[in-house]
Each structure stands twice: as C-alpha cells, then as structure tokens.
Amino acid sequence: MEKTLKQDEIDALFQAARSSTPEAGHAEVRARVVPYNFSSAGQISTDQLRAISMLNDLFARNLTHNLAAWLRTRFQVNLVSAEQIQFNEFLLRIPEISYVASVRLEPLGALSVLQLDLGLAPPVIDLLLGGEGRDGPLRELTDIEESILGSVVEIICRELTAAWQPVGLSFNFERRQMQTQVARVMSVTEKTLCLSFEIRMPHSSGLLNLAFPAVVANTILRRLTADWGRGRRHAGEIRKRMEAAARRIRFGGTLQLPTVRLAAGMVENLEPGMVLRLDQPANTLPEWRVGGQSLFQAQAIRQGAHRAARVEREMVEAEA
Questions:
Q1: Is residue 7 part of a domain?
Q2: What is this structure's pTM?
Q3: Which of 75, 123, 254, 276 could staple 133 via S-S, CB 3.0–4.6 A?
C-alpha cells in the first residue's frame, strides 16, 4: 500500500531542500576563494625559471673553465638561486665590506648591479701577482688591488654576454660603486631579477650576486618565453580561424605606369595643354601594386561602369 504524504510533510521536505542546497553551494564557493596578494604579480613562472637556470648554468660552466685556466687554480662557480625581489631587499643583503659595480646592459641602456664578496679578492689578487692564492684579512682594496679585481669583473661581464647571447644583451662593466652610491642606480622599490652564484676556490669561497631592473627582467623573460614557445604549433581549428581573419584584411591597390625620372626643369615649366614625354613605349603594361609592392603587370579594362585590371604576368617573370 502506497503512503500518501500530507501537505505539511510535503512543505517540510521542500523547506529542507531549500535550506540545504544553498548552504552546500556557498560552502563550495568559500572553499575556492583565497585572498589575492598583489606583491606576487609578475612572478617568474616555472618555464621561465627553467630557461633562466639553463642560461646561467652555461655562464657558470664557462666562467669556471676560463677563470680556472686564467688563475691556474681550481675555481668552481654554481648557480644558487634566481628570484624576483625589491631592490631595497637586495641592498640589505650586501655586506658592509663588499665590491659593488654598475654594469650597463646594451642595447637597452639600463644599469644593473654586480656584487662580489671581498673575501674572494685576496686569493685572486695573490694568484695574479704570482702567489699561491692564500686567504687574507677582510679589508678595503687599494687602488692597485681594485684595478686587478676590475679585470676579473670584466671577464665576468664577457662570459655573461656570451651566455646571454640568445636574449641579445651585452654586459659592459662601467665602474665600481661605493655603498652610498648603489641606491642611486635604480629605485629602491623597483622589483628586480636577482641571480646568486657561489664561487669556491681552494682557500676561500663567496657569492657573486646580480640584480637586473624590471625593464631588463621583463625583456629577458619575454624573449625566453618566446624562444621556449617557438616550437609550439597552433591547433588546426585556431589556424583556420587565423587564416580566415587574415583574408579579410584590406590593402590599398593601384594600377599605374612604371616609375620614370624627369628633369626638374620639365616639371617647373609645365602649363595646361602641354604634353609631357615619359619616354615609355606605347605598349608598356601598367604595374598593379598592392601595399606599395609591385606584384603583376596588368592591362586596364572596363566592365560596365567599373574599371578593372586584367593580370598579364608576374613582375618576376617580366624582369627576367
């Protein structure tokens, strides 16, 4: 025997359905909503970080081999990190006694900052002066020592240029910057791309840090992303839509005689009724030009009230 529901039982079921369904939907929406952090905008993606790491691993290997051969000792360079931080945070990481230099990046004309731990200076200078590369006390450099270390920074810039050739940037050592002058290279609130390398020598170790301004970082990331996505192909349906849209593009077209050269005096003395000689044969075919480019030789024709052009042959064939 079937059970018949009373009206109050039916109303109770509908009320329960109305009260439970919206709550479940709101709970699902609340689970997906998270606070947005504006400071995370423009962060390096995984693909971009992989491409940056590949370029700088190449730079680290080249610098390892070339400086090791130049100094005639074991010299190891490894990429430690690649991150985006504000320039004031980068400044806070610079030790009180350190070697800081400005590097100009061409063709952008922007300045970046190179920082090298001064703990690496004594063994490098000792090796270049004929010593064994012994460690020394942490102190400021003399003028001669600063000049010697500047030659090392120039080699670093040269290897950076070779490694970063795919993005078309050239690193040019400008000059050493004192601690009080570094903050003037770029805005302290500017987001920079910071690269850190660890340098190990037989009797010393330290860090090499590079900070690129936002304009350089964006250029690097954009070119790297384009290179990584160059091998990708659009889906067939997307390609068809792109081709259909391209066919609707309009270009200006003209039918005109070939270009001729006239003396300025002939044009200056022109008057109504005069005949201007163009030195072209009577059977010369006009050129059909699209977007300023000569494509075909054509014959001027008429179809009713409309003017038209009948294509005779391509310009390549005519020139041949």
A1: no
A2: 0.55
A3: 123
